[in-house]
Amino acid sequence: MDQAIQNFVRPFISPAKTQVISELTKLASPKVTVVWVFLIFIFFLYQRKIRNGIGVIVIFSGGGILLSIIKQVIARQRPFERMVPEGTYSFPSGHTFGSLLLLFTFFYLIVPYFNKLKPLIQITMTIFFLFIIFSRVYLFVHFPTDILGGIFYASFWWYLCSYFAAKYRFWQ
Predict the structure, then answer these.
(1) Using only C-alpha atoms, what is the Rg of the chain?
(2) Has this prediction a pTM greater than 0.70?
(3) Which residues cross the membrane (predicted)?
(4) Residue ranges making up the domain that contains 109
């Protein structure tokens, strides 16, 4: 599966596209994700929903720590042909994990404050997520199964955190 998808992507590669995609994929880098989480925290402070802000920090930081451990345990090497340097192991995709957690955060925690903008926010976040997963395969920094691993892990982590938040009535 990995090889078939990589072979499909290969004919679409060009230096100009690679330059643009490698810059845009930084929007889901760990450093930028920390900025997103900080802004979401500030938003919840402004809304006087401090527990929601703390919850978002816990979800992202706890998930990120576990992601690092999983990457070290599995220790899957990145594709040999990668077009941009990456410093960690490949599985699961951290960019995919972080961008999907952002999508879930916006869908379930932010959108309720912006009902009139709900479709715009949901479409924008979905396009953002799809672009990020495409970019990771296009740049050959991940195998497609790394992307699936990131999707599975983010979904499982969000569900687990949501389950406990609901059980203990954490969200305000």
Answers:
(1) 17
(2) yes
(3) 27-46, 53-74, 94-111, 123-141, 147-166
(4) 15-167
